[in-house]
Structure formats: C-alpha cells, structure tokens
TrEMBL record, chains A, B:
Species annotation: Frankia canadensis
The protein, known as: CinA-like protein
Family: Belongs to the CinA family.
Segments forming domain MoaB/Mog: 4-174
NCBIfam families named among the record's database cross-references: cinA_nterm (TIGR00200), PncC_domain (TIGR00199), PRK00549.1 (NF001813)
C-alpha cells in the first residue's frame, strides 16, 4: 500500500503556517506500515490541485489531502477533485439538510443561509462525504480509477478526528490490513534518551520483531517518551499485542517511568503530594522561576504549592532563605550544602511540608570556578534533607530546563521510594531534623 | 519568475521532523515577489528525487531544494540532480582540498579522511558548488535546460545562511530583479495586533503601495512584530527605501515600540535598569514564576535581578511579602491594592530599587468572583508605587504569558517616561513613600 500526502493552501506556500498536518499524517501512516513516498503542497488553484492529484495517483494507491474544503471562494479542493476525476459537482441533499439544521441550531433562519455556504454541500459526482465531528466542513472520499482520494479540512483538530474515525479505517480495509491502531505512551524522566533506547533494544527485537507493535522514542524538554503502537482487527486484539511489550518496557525502564500519555511530570508530582495532603515550596537559583512556572501551569496547583523564592543574588539566599552567610562565603552559592540550606529555608519560611531547591551554573560562562552544567538539588522534608548533584549538557536554556526536570524527578522518586536516576553524580543526607 | 520548493528526507515523510525549511523559504520568496506554486517532499531515493526535479522544472524556472547533501549513504541529492540532468558525478578538486583542510584543522591526519566524506566533494558534471559558511556540506547550483536547481543542506541554520548569501542573489539576478533584500523588525508590546495593523494601515497604503517595501505583522507570545522588507540593487538603496517607512511606523506606533530585531522585552528592561545602576525584584501570583524565568533567561541578568517571590498561597503574600492580612481579607488576593503591597513588599524584603508584581485570575475558573483574565500589576520604586489593571483574553497559558509581558511593559514604559499601553483598563498611584 502506497499513499501520498497533498496539502492545499496559499498560506502554506507563503510560509504563513508550517505544514504540521503532513508531519502528523506521516507518523500515523508510518505507524501502520503505509509507505509515503511523496508529500506535496499546492496553492488554491483548481487545475494545480487536479494535476497534483492525477500525478499522485499515477504513483500511489491513495491520496490523503488536507485543506481547501471551507465555504469561501478560495476553497477549491472539491472542484480540484472533480476535475481530476473528469466529473462535475453535485449538490448532496443529506449535506444540505445538515447545513440548514446547523444554521438553525445557531438560532438563525435556515432559509437565509448564505449561498456561499451551500458550496460545502456539493461533492464531486460519485464521491461520499466523510463526517466532520469537530467542525462544519465535511470530508470527501472519491474513487478515481483503481485509486482513492480522501480530502479532509486543514484545521488540525478537525483533520485528526476525521482521519482517525473515517480515513484510517477505510485505508486499512483497502490495504487488507487490520483496522484498529492503538498507541500507548510511557513517559520517563531522569534517563538519557540513549539509555532508554538501549534498555529497550533487546525487548524491541524479542517482542516486536516484525514491527507490530512498533516502538518509537521521542526526546524533548529533558524527558523521553516511549510510544508503543499496535495495529489489529479490533481494540482488544491491539491491547493484547501491546500488553506484553508494555510490561517488558516498564520492567526495563524501572523507576524512570513516571506516567502515561495524559501525564506531565509536574502533575504527577503534585498528585503524589496531594494524595498525602502535603504542601510544597521551591527555592530557585539557576532555574530562576522555571520550576515554579512549570508547577503553576497545572490547574489546581494552589492546593499543593504554597509558593517559591527565586534567590538569584547571593545575598537573597541569606536574607530571604536564611542560608548561612559563612556557608555561602566558604562553599559558594553553587554547592550541595547551599542547595540543602535553600531547601530547608524555603520549607520553613513558607510553611510547607517539602522544600525543593536548585542552584548551579547555567552559563554561558563558568561561575565560582565550576563548569557550565554543574547543578545541585536540595530536598527538605519531614524526615530531613537530602541533596543530589548532576552535570547537565547543553546551552543555557537546556541546562535550566533540564535542571528543573531533575528537581521534579528527585521529588517524585523520593516520595515514591524509588532509586535515583541516571543523571545523578553525587548526593547525601545532610540533616535529619524536621521543621517543628 | 516561478520557483518550486523540494525537500529530500525520509525523516520529513515519516513526520519525525516538521518541514519548517519550506515555511521559511516560502516567506523569503514571497517577500521578493517570486511565485511558489508547489512545494514537495520526497524520500531518500535517487529516481524519486530525479523525477521530482524534472516535474518541477517542467512547471517552474527554478527549484530550491533542501536536504540530502550529507556524507552518508542515504544522502542522495547529488545523485538525484545528476540523474535529472542526465550527467554523471565528478570529483571537484577544490572541494576535496577544502575537505582535507577542514579535517586537518580538527587535528586529524588529512590522508586518513574516511572515504565516505569524499562524497561531499562530488558534484553533478557541470554544477557549481555553493559555499557553506556554517557547516561542511557544500551546496549545489546546476542549470538544467532553461531552468536551475539550487540544492542546500537541510540543517536550518546552514540552509538559511546559504540561501541569503548565495541562492537569493543568484535567483534575483536570473529574474532580472534587484539583488539585495533587507529586513527591519520593530518589536511592540502593550498593543493589540489589530491596533498595530490599524495604526499602520494608512502608512502602508501611502508609503508601500507597490509592495516594496513590504510590511508584515507577526503576533506571538503577547507581542507583535512589524517586519519591513525592501529589495534593491544594493544595501544603501534598500536602506533608503526602508528609512521613511520605519520613521513613519515608529511615529504611528509611538510608545508601543520597545526595540528592534535583536531585542527582547526582558533584555530591554534589564538594559534600562542596568543603565541607571538600579536593581529589580519580582513578586508573582498568577504568573507563578514566568516573569522571573523570562528575566533570568537573559545571560547577565544577575547584575540587575536580585530575585523574586512566588506568593501562590494567600498566606505567603502576608508572610513572605508583608501584605497586610486585613487587606487580603477585605479586598482579596486579586486586587490592585494587593498588587501594590506585593510590589512594595518584595522591593523592601529583597533590597531592590524596584519591585514588580502580578496578581490575577489565570483560570480555568473565576476566583473571588473575578472573571478569568483579571490582572493587577504593581510597580514600587524610589518615587512611590503605581498599579495598573488589565483584562486579558485567552486560556490559562495565554493569560499567564500575557500578564508577564504586561508587567515587563509597565516597567519599561515607567522607566522611559512613556504613556500606558492599550491593554490598561485602570490604575493609580497608591503611595508616595520610598524604601529608606
């Protein structure tokens, strides 16, 4: 089975928007083993669209098209498909009734529907409409010769819903392939991407030798996601294919896995704290607010997070967090003992159950003779204070982002009683006291 | 002049990366009036590449190609161009010498250069190399019939440098068009995009009626950029075209313009403070660390920023910032007077010349009976404390981001003695005292 992607729209050619639809569709089709050899973008012109469709069908069995299905005069995909097939357009009674119903549902007179909107009720003669569950423009399915064209709206959330519900099942049926695709995502923190890939290499060969399920690694923002994709005749069969791979992957990745597709590291950490009725405060130096900003991005964070202190100037570490001035003078602002004192200080001053801290060298230049990427983390809680040290690669933004991830992961692993991650290069328990 | 874009790489077809190069090139070509009717992506296959080049040259005068120029065996663009032209590959002595020189410059024996790397010294017979100032893979310029193919590396920063230095001037020469393109960017804050566009509408018609210079608006992250693009025979002529438009645009936008292309709002604010030897501290509620994180993203921020307090819990506003508990009880955490007290409190407690604060409702639900988007800003300085109130549209992330931008813009306008921005719905001077 070979497919081609075709996107219609001047705004794509002019670079006003990036063709993210093609990347998403490319991943979906690769996941189910459909070969995509060419992806094309053309402007809003009937003959150009028709020529591109004919050229694609000369090379492939199916054309997956996005864009140009709206009601305005520069939406010409319907006309382009009709021209490629050598047929005319025909008003579809069902679609027309549906349009009137939608218009009336908005409290307006159905007989006053602007004539332009009726264009969305027209289909190339012989085509079938594809339902749009997320918007008004129906999709189009049109057989031309031995091939097929699927046209979907360019709006990403309308397109993805229509592809999953209508296009993919039909495409797989035509290919004689199973009709359901299920993804499972495992999210990891505290592991290098290469370590994640190596940990799973043997399992990939053993459990997914023929590419179903298929395993992919996606690294971004200091975290690595593992995506397991299975295709099967129905959901139960797909789940049965995924289950042993997921079990093996979780075993191989161990404490590195913090959650699934819907989770974020911040939401998992807030959930662990919320479940035990505990509160958190953060003290940041090199992350400079990133840690607090990530936590407060989660709606409802206020139930757990009391707040934070960004102690950027060294004197602020002493005045706002109570870090001992002698300690700062002898060990420096970038040290494990300073991280411990920051965590204990913010825990006490903001009245939280846990205090989490970061200090280090974000760059671009070294500081106190310590190299860029040096990071010390502190975690103070009811049972005392621990520190962890990591050496992070990359430029200033990457060091800062990864330091915030490492701090959240330290808190997650500590709360869950899990061992340290791969990135840790040193650490100790620096005090055993409690706040009260 | 008609051009087509062609990108080579399996990773684009599979959706592992998005084709951002096509969007960037589309904007560049639209800016200089070169028409792009089709943009294509093909995989790493010689015959597919050759077929795509031939098809593009049947429709257009030039093909702008990216990707497939590296040293490995799946980099097949050179072979694809040769096949399209019906010629062989030929080792280029100049490129070979250059490769050996680079290899030796890395401290390695030039005679031990891996054979695979020599592929980068091969060109289709009759082609000219295009210099790569940012990487090792040279570009290729090849005339085929009456058309021309420009092939550039897929790595964005290598591609953009090569396009600007070599491809665009050659393309414009062939088109009989001026050979230099100059951009000027004005960055604005505190203005709605529609207001920016309206303010310039008359100037666009008056000063740029024939599309040279061309004016574009780009809105993101709560800010709007205005890009003025001129094409001319040389840089001086382009600058002379831009100058009156830039002067008129600056006059029309007034205090909204905070800087040019290389600036960020954070760096401009830190620069204004640094120039007068002043320091800053921030107190954040709804922005939850975003303001501090934006400021500390700028290298060297530590010379100005003493630090910040994220006072997420209401009690922390009292305990860490000294906001009066009665005030919090009567007016609420989301109020102009609380913003003023937060700013004055963080200024005093962190020993800074200026204190800047945010409080408000980020959503998803209302708070204290105040709607999502309600934001109060406070700014305490040597001459007293002022507040500003804004009502921001959008969801939780947008309200938070725009609130941080509004706070920085308040500080910028106050330091520079400029009037308030469009977004301000209320404000007052709440106290006249100084810290000491």
């Amino acid at each position: 089975m070979r497919a081609e992607l075709l996107a219609v729209g001047d705004e794509l050619l002019y670079g006003d928007i990036v063709n993210g639809n093609a990347a998403w569709l490319g991943r979906q089709l690769a996941d189910v083993g459909v070969d995509v050899a060419t992806s094309t973008v053309v402007g809003d012109e009937i003959e150009t669209i028709a020529t591109a469709i004919r050229a694609a069908l000369a090379r492939a069995d199916a054309v997956v098209l996005t864009g140009g299905l709206g009601p305005t005069q520069d939406d010409l995909t319907r006309e382009g498909i009709a021209a490629a097939a050598g047929v005319g357009l025909r008003r579809n009674d069902f679609l027309e009734a549906e349009l009137r119903r939608r218009f009336q549902a908005m409290g307006r007179d159905g007989s006053a529907l602007p004539a332009m909107n009726f264009r969305q009720a027209e289909l190339p003669d012989g085509a079938q409409p594809l339902p749009n569950t997320a918007g008004s423009a129906p999709g189009v399915r049109m057989e031309i010769g031995a091939g097929v064209v699927y046209a979907m709206p360019g709006v990403p959330f309308e397109m993805t819903a229509m592809f999953t519900a209508s296009v993919l099942p039909d495409l797989l049926r035509r290919a004689g392939q199973p009709a359901v695709v299920v993804h499972r995502v495992l999210r990891t923190a505290g592991m290098w991407e290469s370590v994640v890939a190596e940990a799973l290499a043997a399992e990939v060969d053993r459990l997914a030798p023929i590419g179903n399920p298929r395993i992919a690694f996606l690294a971004s923002g200091g975290q690595t996601r593992v995506r397991i994709t299975a295709r099967a005749r129905d959901r139960a069969e797909a789940e049965a294919l995924i289950a042993p791979v997921e079990t093996a992957a979780r075993a191989a990745l161990g404490a590195g896995v913090y959650g699934g597709d819907e989770d974020s590291l911040e939401s998992v950490v807030l959930g662990l704290l919320g479940a035990r009725g505990a509160t958190l405060a953060v003290a940041e130096s090199l992350t400079g607010g990133l840690l607090a900003a990530a936590l407060t991005d989660v709606p409802g964070a206020s139930a757990v997070l009391r707040g934070g202190v960004v102690s950027y100037a060294t004197e602020v570490k002493a005045s706002a967090l109570g870090v001992d001035a002698d300690l700062l003078a002898t060990e420096g602002a970038v040290s494990a003992r300073t991280a411990a004192a920051m965590a204990a200080g913010v825990r006490e001053r903001l009245g939280a159950d846990y205090g989490l801290s970061t200090t280090g060298v974000a760059g671009p230049t070294e500081q106190e003779g310590k190299p860029v990427g040096t990071v010390h983390l502190g975690l103070a809680g009811p049972d005392g204070t621990i520190t962890r040290s990591v050496l992070l690669p990359g430029d200033r933004p990457r060091v800062r982002t990864n330091a915030a991830v490492a701090a959240l992961d330290l808190l997650r692993r500590t709360l869950a009683g899990l061992p340290d991650g791969d990135l840790v290069t040193g650490g100790e328990r620096t005090s055993g006291g409690s706040r009260d």
